[in-house]
Amino acid sequence: FESSLVQPAVVPFEISGLRSIATDLRMSAANAFGLEFRLKPLLRELARWRLARNHAVDLDATPDAARRILGEQLWRLTRAAEERPEFRAPGTPLADVRAVIDRLERI
Predict the structure, then answer these.
(1) Nearest Cα residue to 81 out of 30, 47, 35
(2) % of residues, the chain, pLDDT over 70
(3) Whole-angstrom Cα distance, residue 22 to residue 17?
(4) Sign (positive/negative) of CA torsion 14, 15, 19, 25?
C-alpha cells in the first residue's frame, strides 16, 4: 500500500541554462542590444574555448590566427562593436546565427 503512494521524481523538461540561451537568440534577432550584449559575449566565450582546445590559439593574444580560423562572419560576431550601435536597430537574422554556429562547431 505505501509503495503505491510514493510519487516518482519529477524529471525536468529542459536543460539547465537552455532557456537563457533561447532568450539570447531571440533578443539578438530582435535588436542590436540583444546582439551586442547577449549573443556576442556568448559566441566569444564559445569561440575562445574552441580555439584554445582545438588549435592552441588564444583569441586575444593571437587575433590574426584566431581570425583566420574563425572566418570573417564569426570573427565579427566575437568582437565588440567599434561604435556604439543604435540599440533599437535590427539584430542579426537567425539564419546568420545558424551559419556561425555551424562554423563554430567545425572549429
Answers:
(1) 35
(2) 88
(3) 9
(4) negative
Q: Which helix (H) or strand (E) holds 45?
A: helix 40-55
Which cell numbers hold the place of 80? Answer: 565588440
Closest Cα partner for 99 from 67, 63, 72?
A: 72
Q: What is the pLDDT of residues 61-84, one digit of tens each?
A: 999 999 999 999 999 999 988 888
**Cα–Cα distance measured from residue 86 to residue 18, given in angstroms and rounded to the nearest whole number:** 28
State residue 4's pLDDT score.
66
**Residue 11: pLDDT above 70?**
no
Could you give the C-alpha distances from 72 to 3, 8, 9, 22, 78, in angstroms and in order?
A: 60, 50, 47, 24, 10
Mean pLDDT for all residues in the chain: 89
The residue behind cell 568582437 is: 79
